[in-house]
Structures are given as structure tokens and as C-alpha cells.
Amino acid sequence: MAVPAVPSEGHEEQHKSTSSFGIGSIKFQCSLFAVLLFALLYSSSSQSIVKTLPGFHGSLPFTLESGYVGVGENEELQLFYYFIESERDPANDPLVIWLTGGPGCSAFSGLIFEIGPLTFDFESYQGGVPTLNYNPHSWTKEASIIFVDSPVGTGYSYSNTFEGYHSTDHKASDDLYAFLRKWLLKHPKFLKNPVYVGGDSYGGKFVALVTWRISQGIDAGHEPRINLQGYIVGNPVADGFIDGNAPLPFAHRMGLISDDIHKMAEENCNGNYIKADQSNGLCLEAIKQYEECTADICFDNILEPNCQEKMTSHDISLLKLPSELKEEPWCRKDSYFLTHVWANDPSVQKALHIREGTIKEWVRCNYSISYSEKLDTVLEYHHLLSKRGYKTLAYSGDHDLYIPYTATLEWIHTLNLPVADEWRPWKVDNQVAGYTKRFIHNETGKYVTFATVKAAGHTAPEYKRRECLAMVARFFSDSPL
């Protein structure tokens, strides 16, 4: 196919990390025996309050808990999580379970680069344990958030069996549902809090599936009863056809391809740029010209330099420190390597109470996990949830070429909901922060809110933290954006 495929996780291209373990590797098999031995020493679930972290000066100004929850028939899967209590009113504020994409990207990525209360000081990095700074625009100003390393093999999560490392969209979602139920049983003070499922990029699939499982569980009388109120998806993967066909016309909107190229594609490809008719020469030519025009564009955010992430130990050894990059183009992805340095440091793993020997090497995105049965679409789940009238926020960075905002708006329109508020700008500090359109469930009176985030990419909070905090705060409070 000519048009670039829908990303597994938008911040990076899908390189395979040789440092991560996969089911077929000898290194993995050897390390798994060690995992089994170590796992016998621990209970199936554990959690600890973390008061200080290497790289952060002084005590943490928020409540951080890290731990494992065992799921599976014999609790063979040990899902690791970071839980941060709301910095405002944890007894009453929403509880969000946040699902990072990939599949295989650690929850720490969403915590540190997007919506959590910590950030790296990349500019001052000179080696050693990276410095952590406080992020004043964290979503924990409005909600308590559970960041989960899922599916198993992601981040610090691991399995006690070989078979446990294989996952699918459905299985990962079932595991997350089991995780949330067990977590709530161990944290009963949050049982009455309004619950939201949130995530971005490929995590958008998990959000739809997990939210539906929770809804079904409520119908079935599962305990504990989860106080589900709605869900949040950002720059989300939702439907292969809609998402995959959106980039070409979006590139035309953004001035990346000419009117003539767009017209040739529009007149000859019948709206299908993913599986173009190989006998249709004019369609193939249009797609070829589109590819040539966007080959050197950063699909994460078309305004930024096009560069690749350093993902393995070998890649990182070749990376220059920020002080050595003065003559080279700035690259957002250069800062991602700090996660690798920080999360693999023994002092960090000790502070987080990581079970020794359970992982060989932490990587931000583990593309070597054994994963199959990727659903091409989760639209049916969005439709099922829409019939139940759940409150929804779907937002997109308006310069994301991987999953353009037009794709998200298109599948929202398929829900056939009445429009409550027509397209209009929304503002932060009297400045336009993006554009929004709101739909309403007549039966419940709850809204489906769509929003773009101006000048943001894939995914939006990484680029516009202050604006995204204002957006989600208004969503939680049922206020228009």
C-alpha cells in the first residue's frame, strides 16, 4: 500500500527493538526461567508508596504508588502500574485508567511526556540519572490516574509462563478489565469515584474495548461495581479504513500536496488509498506523487523536523548529549532516550520496587512482544457505547498526519448523534486553543465532545500540556470547552 500504515504508536516509527525479549528468542527463554524463580518469592499483587525518586530533588509533591496486580487464571500475568492520586480532591475527583498505545509502549511514556506530573530536564542532561522536573499542567490536577504497563511484556510487566507473553487486542482488554477490578478491591476508597477509561494512539482501541467490558460487567452484576461515567481517546486508532484513508486528503488541506495531485486521487481512487486498484494507473500515480511529497515530513507533527527515535542500547550509545547538538536540528524524539536511561537505572528500579530479575532490559516501546489478532476496527464498540449514552471526549492534535483529526471526526459522525454545539473555537487565556464540536445523547443528556488542539501533533498533550489540562478539566466538570 502506498499510503503509510496506521501507526502502532504515533511518537515513533515501528522499528523492532533488539534489546526487548520476544517469545522465539533464546535470550528470552533463558531469562524467563529466572523470572519464574524470582516470582515464587513474591505475592501475586503488591503496592508501595513512593516518596522520592532518583533525579527528583526532594520529596514528591504528590502521592505516587507503584505495584503489580496479578491477572490470568493463575495470576501468571503481573501487570505493573504507576498510580498518582489527584492533587486536588482524591476522595471525589474522577479516577482514570490510562492506556498507552503501541501495542507495547510503557505507561511511563504517557506519564512523563503527556499527562503526568513529571517531566525530564532534557536540555541540561550531561549523563547519569536524568533530572526530573514537576509538570504543573498534569491531569492529576483534576483526577487520580492509574498508568498501566499493558499488554504483558510492556514496561515492567511480565509473565510467569511462556504462554502468558502472547496477547491480542481482546485478551489485553480482558486482562485490563481484570486488573481494574482487582485494583479497586485493593483500593476500596475509590469505589464511589466516577471512573473514566482513557488512552491515545493505538491505546484508543483498548479504550473502546475495556470500556465496553466494564459496561457489560455492570450489566452482569460483577463486583466490585465500577462507577463508569465515560471515556477519553486522543489521536485514536479506531478504524483501519477511515484512519488509513485520511492522510492523503488531509495532506492536501495542509498544503503538502497540490490541487492537481489531490484531484487525480479523488477522481480515480474512489476514496480508497490503502488498497488501490493495481490496474488503475492514474490512482497509483496520484498515490506515488503523494508519497514523494510527504517522504520527508514528520507524520507525528508536520511542523517539526523529521527524525527517528533512538530505541536500543546501541542507538543510544551513538546519541550526542544536548550540549553537543547545537549545530544540529532539534528533534523531539531525542529526549525519549532519557526514559531508557532512567528506567534501567538500579536505583530507580529499587525506588519503584521492581521485582529483581523479572525483566532483562526496559524499553519505552517493546515491539518484540508476541501479539496477534489486531482488530481492524473498533467502531462497533463505539456504537454500542454510544447507545448507552456514555460521556465521551475525543481530541486530536490538528497537525497529526498519522491519525488526522478528520478521521476521528468522521467516525464520530457515524454515531448519528444530534449536534448540540456546532464547530467553534475554544480558548485558553483568551487565545484560541483549538476547535470543538459537541454532540448529545438524547436519552442520557450526556455529550460526545470532539476537539482539535491547535498546533499539536500525535499525541496532543505532549505538545500543548496547558491547553490539554484546561480541555480535560472542562470535560470532567461537564462544561463546554
TrEMBL record:
<dbReference type="GO" id="GO:0004185">
    <property type="term" value="F:serine-type carboxypeptidase activity"/>
</dbReference>
<comment type="similarity">
    <text>Belongs to the peptidase S10 family.</text>
</comment>
<dbReference type="GO" id="GO:0019748">
    <property type="term" value="P:secondary metabolic process"/>
</dbReference>
<dbReference type="InterPro" id="IPR001563">
    <property type="entry name" value="Peptidase_S10"/>
</dbReference>
<dbReference type="GO" id="GO:0006508">
    <property type="term" value="P:proteolysis"/>
</dbReference>
<keyword id="KW-0808">Transferase</keyword>
<dbReference type="Pfam" id="PF00450">
    <property type="entry name" value="Peptidase_S10"/>
</dbReference>
<dbReference type="GO" id="GO:0016747">
    <property type="term" value="F:acyltransferase activity, transferring groups other than amino-acyl groups"/>
</dbReference>
<keyword id="KW-0012">Acyltransferase</keyword>
<dbReference type="InterPro" id="IPR029058">
    <property type="entry name" value="AB_hydrolase_fold"/>
</dbReference>
<protein>
    <submittedName>
        <fullName>1-O-acylglucose:anthocyanin-O-acyltransferase-like protein</fullName>
    </submittedName>
</protein>
